[in-house]
Amino acid sequence: MMKCLTRTAIAYLTFLILFGSIFTAGCLEQSSGLSGESGTEEKEVNNNGSSSTGYLTSEETDNNGKSSTGYLKTEAVNLSGLEAGNSSLAVNYRLDALDIELKAPQYNLPLKESEITNYGDFSDKFLTDEAALEKLKENGFVVISNPYNPEEEDITAMYDILGREGQLIFISSDTLLHLYHVQFDDSMSQVEESELFDLLWELDEALLNSSIEEYNSASGEEKEATRRNTAYFAVALSLLRPDENQIKYQFEVPAFVREDVDAELALIEAHEGFALSPIFFYKEDYSQYVPRGHYTHSEKLQNYFRAFMWHGRMSMLLKGKLIQAEDPEKEARIQTIQASLISSRLKDNPDLLQKWDRLYAITAFYVGVSDDLGPYEYMEAMDTVFGNESRDFNTTTIRELKVELAGYRSPEIYGGTGSGTHELILTAEQADELLEDTKGFRFMGQRFIPDSYMFSRLTGPYTNEYTGNQEGLPFTYISSSYGNNRGFPRGLDTMALLGSERAVYWLDELNDSSYENYSLRYGELDSEFSNFSTADWNRNLYWSWLYSLQPLLKDYGSGYPTFMQTDAWQDKELTTSLASWTELRHDTILYSKQNYVIATELPIFGNRTVGYVEPVPAFYNRLLALTRMTGDGLGELDALDEDSKRRFESLESILERLIDISEKELENEELTEEDKFYIFEFGERLEMLGGVDEETRKTTLVADVHTEPNSELVLEEGTGYVDMIIVAYKLPDGRVFLAAGPVMSHYEFKQPMSERLTDEKWREMLEEEPPEKPEWTSTYGA
C-alpha cells in the first residue's frame, strides 16, 4: 500500500512556523476537505432545486471527508500542514453566498443601429470598420484593435482615456484578473528578493560546509556521496551568488569538486537542451535554466531562479535505470546516500530545518507542494530503518532504505529527468514505470500543478524513430493505450477540463480530440476534476486561481444580458481565461513542474448612463475569495509588506463593489448615483493599486508550459496587447447603449526549446512578427 506522508512531523513543523501551535493531520484518505469555513459553491437553481437559469444562488459545499481518486492520487500529492485538511492556510478562503434572480433586460439579435441610443458617438469613433460593425450587430459585442494605442500594454490606460472623453465604460473581467496577477506577481517577487534569496543562500552555505566536513571523515561510497553533495551545493551557491563583491555572499568552491562544478555551470550557462549531468550522470534539460517570467527584472531574481531551478529539477534517484554509467545501480546507491545525508543534516539541525520549512511553506502556499520526495520522507524512512541507532550507510542499510522508500509515492508528472535514456513507451504501465524510475529526492522539488498533470495524461508516448512527418516535425507519434498521439497539448485541454463546453467544441472543430484514446483519457480526467470539492480546489493559490476562472467558462443562459448568451461571448471568455492562465503560468514558472479615491461631493447623473460592469458576480465572488486568501495567508506567513497588503485590500474593495453592481444589473435594477459614480471614476480608482513597477503591470507576458524533447520544441502561451471590447447593453428603462473597455489577447505557439522565450524576447516577436491569434477569436474579433 502506498505510504501516507509523515503527517505528524510535517504538520507539526509547518504549522508551528505559521501559527505557533501544534497540529497532527491524518492521511488525506481520511479527511480531504476543509472543516467549517470551507466556503460555498455557486449553482444556478430554481425554487425546487432543479437546474435552471432563472436564479444564481449558492449552497454549502459537501465536504464529507471524501477524497478524490483515480490517477490524481491526492494522498500521493505531498499535502503537508499547508494543505492537510483542517490545518490549512486555505481556511482563509471564504466564498460568500449569492442569491440573485436573473432577469437582465434583453434585446433582439441582430441589432439595428436605430435601436442604439449612442450609436452615432461610437460609430464615428470606433466602428468605422464594416466588419466590426457587422460583428457588433450579430453578437451584441465586438472586440477590435485598441484605437487609442494598438500596442498598449497597460490595461488600466483605456479607462483613463474613455473617462476623459466622456465615453461609456465597460468594466471587464479581464481587468480584474490582470490586476490580481499584478498583485500576485509583485508580492511573490518582493518576498523572493527580500527573504527567500537569503534563506536559500544560508541553507546552501550551511549544507556545503557540512558536506565538506563529512567528506574529510567519510570513506567508501559515503565519501563519494559527500563529495557529490559538496559539488551539488557549490553549484547552487555559484548560481545564487551576485556578481558584485558582497562580503555576505562569498564562498570557495573546493578544489576536489571544482572540475565537476565548472562543467555543470558551463552546461547551465549554455542552456542548449538535454545533456549528461557531470555530477548525476543522467540527462538534464539545461534549457530550463534561462530566467523567465519576473525573474528577468533584477540580477538577484535571475540568480535565485537558476539556483531554485537546480534544486527543483536535479534528483537523487533511487533506481539506476536512467543513469548512464558503468554501474548504474552503484550510482543510484550513492545518490540515495546523498539524499539521506542531506536529510540527516536537516533533522539534526533545527535551525536549518526551520529555514527549509519557511522557504517551502511560502512557495507551497503560492504554487503547491512538491511532486517528488523530499527531506521529510527520507527522515521517516531512516527512522524506520535505523531507529535510534547511528546511521551507517552501508550496502545492507541502503538496500533496506531503498526498499522502504519504494513504498512511497511516485511522481505524478514526468519532468524530463533522463530524457532519451529510457526505452520506447507504448503502454500505461510503461509510462507509470518511467515515473517510478524518476522517483528520488529533490531538495526543493518542483510543484504538482493540475494543468501539467492534465497535459501529462492527455499527451502520450512517442517513438524516437524517424518514420514520417507530422506538422513539419521529424518524427511520428505512435498510438497507444496511454495518452494519445497528438504530442502537444493545448490550452483548450485545460479550459475544457475546467468546464468549458466551448473549449470542447473547438477541440472537436480543430480535430484536436480525434487522436486514439484521447476521449478515454479525457473522460478519466473529467471524472476526477468534476468531483473535486471547494476545499480541493482551494488548497493553495495556484489551484484557487484556476477555480476562479470556472464561472467565466460556463454557458450563460436566459436571464443574462443578450450578448452573453452567444457562442461568440463564450469564445471571448475562453480567451480571457486562457490569458489569465498564461499569466498564472508566467508568475509561477520557476516552481511549476512542467510535463514534459472617494470624492467629497458626488455629481448627480440622473437619467444619464455612465457605463456597465460585466455582470459575472460568481466570478468576482471567487476572485474576491482568492484575493482574501492571498492577503490573509501571506499575512499569517509574515510574508507581506505594507504596500502589497494595501493593494490586496484595495482589490478586495473593488471586487466587493463590482459584485454589488453586477447583481443589480442582472436583477434589472436601476443603479444608484453612487454606483454610477463608481463606474465613472473607475480608472482613477485603479490608481489606488499603483506602486507596482511598469514591467510588472505590462500585459505582454509569455510562459512555456510543455516540453517535447524529441522535437526539441516547447509550447508557449503568450498574452499580447490590450484590445478594446464594445458591448451593447440594455437598461431597465429600455434604452440600449454601447460601452467600451479593455480586454486581454492570447496566443499559443511552438518554439525551439533552446530558445525558450523571456518576456523581453516575446515583446520583440509581437512587434516584429506576431503569431496568429487562435481560431475562435474570429467569431467575435474584427
Automatic annotation (TrEMBL):
Composition bias type Polar residues, residue spans: 46-69
Please give the Pfam families that the UniProt record associates with this protein: DUF3160
Q: Per its UniProt record, what InterPro entries does this chain match?
A: DUF3160 (IPR022601), UCP014897_arc (IPR016626)
- Name the segments for region: Disordered: 33-69
Which domain of life does this protein belong to? Archaea
Q: Where do the coiled-coil regions begin and end?
A: none
Q: What is this protein called?
A: dTDP-D-glucose 4,6-dehydratase
Q: Which organism is it from?
A: Methanosarcina siciliae T4/M
